Amino acid sequence: MKSQDQAKWDELMARWQEIYDLDGVSALLNWDQSTYMPSGGGAVRARQSALIGRLAHERRTDPAIGRLLDELDAAGVGREAESVEAAMLRQLRRSYEHSTRIPAAFAAEFVEHLSNSYSVWAEARPRNDFAAVRPYLHKTLAMSRQLAEFFPGHAHPADPLIDEVDQGMTVAKIQPLFEALRRALAVWVAALAQKPAVDSHFLQRHYPKAQQQAFGEQVATAFGYDFTRGRQDETHHPFMTKFGPGDARITTRFYENDLVNALFSTMHETGHALYEMGIDEAYASSVLDTGTSAGVHESQSRLWENLVGRSRPFWEHSYPALQAVFPEQLADVDLDSFYRAINRVQPSLIRVDADEVTYNLHVIVRFGLELDLLEGKLSVEELPEAWHARYQENLGVHASDDRDGVMQDVHWFSGPIGGSFQGYTLGNIMASQFYAAAVAAQPQIEAEIAQGSFGTLHGWLRENLYRHGARYTPDELLLRVTGSELTIQPYLAYLQRKYSQLYGTLPALP
Ligand code: ZN
Fold it and tell me: Which domains, from first to last, does the chain contain?
């Protein structure tokens, strides 16, 4: 790079680092709000979040960034499409163009509104008080539609909201994939409903929190989570968040009458954190220092939670250790019974507790509701009933209230309506693709998991996936790592193999 170009490059990187740090501060405020902040802090926290959001937005949309991008383009910097410079400029351009379409006042109002909405939801959900959140949801829907309008030329109002988190994805691409998956899962859920019930009552014995926490942290460490660059705290709705390259935190919640809820949530958030912790140090605090999409992120949380954490090889090694932690509670439970219990298929109300077979039906229901709300086919008033109706139709279950119905997930109460759910199922689909590629490259992975060793899998994922951060788009990354585009076949094959082994042969798909 010529020296005048180098100076421009350095200025652009320095400007981005300030944005990155403001985003980190914003994440820290959110983490605190979701973990330790007393409820009295809510009003001022909303104001603080809005302030940081506004400052970040001002910096993101500073015309100097547009000018630097244009000048570096004109000078031919990043002309080599495969170079890191090209990837950085592409992602910076994407951020700049995205942010400049959204007026600063709108962005600030939305952040403040969502912060208030979250606080109201957190108090209203235990009271089952949908009326309290309804006006907030109205405004969120109106603002989500308005947000989509800042991106003209989209085929569906959800498209720009989806593209923001799952770059390159659209309703038109997702819907046929989800519909094919829904049809397949419906066949298997119906078949599994005919099988004898699996006993899992022993998972609901008394399991003291301290031991659960210690065991979960041991598993996270074994997977590769680095507690010198992160920590675990408690929250209502578990999440992973990153404040910077050396601080990627996980959260969970403990139920003393449930052995595995916190454990699988810890594995899940650990998967997210491994991705963030594994990004190449050369990209630290740059625009590439983040996972490339919601779907790819979720592929890593689900990979560690399900493909590893709910697998028989994992428990061949770990079950004796778990029994040693809870000798009385698990004295009469053998490995096979435990393995069957943690993989019990049972249509239920709560997405985050759902088994692997029914899980995506929860997501597909929410995705459909989001589309209908955005299209104006469904009103906020009708939403609670529509929720119940679709649960009845797709899962055959009916919540007795809105707490476990429409108020169940934090997403619509803390973020836009649109774009917030498809990533979960895209992640499940991609997890199987990535895992199959890892095992094809390193066939010893499953035998190592059965020895309690995860280094080969973690190393392969870090080398092929994590270290790239946002260098490649989700499509590019998937193709690069697996040699294939997005396809549900490996996922269906995985489910069929696993659940046929557990329950007896599942019906072939039409
Ligand atoms: Zn997740």
Answer: 3-153 (no CATH), 171-503 (1.10.1370.30)
